[in-house]
Amino acid sequence: MKIHRFIEKFELVGDQLWVNDRALLKQWGLVLRFRPGQIILLIDQATKQEAEVEIVELNQKAARLKVLRLLPFKPESVRAVNLYCAILKKENFEWVVQKATEVGVTAIVPLRTERTIKQDLRLDRLTKIAVEATEQSGRVSVPTLALPLPFSKALALSVASPGLTMCFDMGSLDTKWPVVTSDQPYDLFIGPEGGWSPAELELIQSHNLPTYSLSTNVLRAETAAVVATYLAAN
Prior knowledge:
By secondary structure, the chain is of the alpha/beta class. The chain has helices at 22-31, 92-103, 123-137, 151-160, 198-206, 221-233; strands at 5-8, 16-19, 39-44, 50-58, 63-71, 81-86, 107-112, 144-145, 149-150, 164-168, 186-190, 211-212.
């Protein structure tokens, strides 16, 4: 039987705790129809501690939970994986946030590029998607979601920081990833549906950065973002 997981600011100290978050109580009582005796998993967003708890009391105002056991800490990826992805059309960017979270991304930075069509994002909705994907996938750390940045600024920040900057382009023939140390972070740059513009490719070259390809096949931008994240995280 599936055990539901929830990530929030839980004080997992002692053998019981109270939950007063109205949205969470509504989800538990009205949507999921939890009742006393229900076993769930809670993850404290601050400490990453996970606990198996039992619902003792549940109403519209509060829930009293009994802590059954604290679970061992789950290791995340051996390195940070920062995904710089162009804002994509329709629900494609939301799909990237969901799937990249599932495969181990550390941070997601939306990019505004010359060929970006959709400019606006609902960060509150994206955060909710990231939290739900973290809960579903068994992770304990919710990825950081940054405000959108122009491609030129994001690239300059990445080059100036420690770690490996990798720009992916469907026109590249290089599919071999460079060797990195175990703790060296990856900064992965994925362009929009139409690819990087000539000016953006020149900007990449001006930083003495090669471009990489993920496959001899042509991948959609959202597919490339998730594949690159998975390979970097694993």
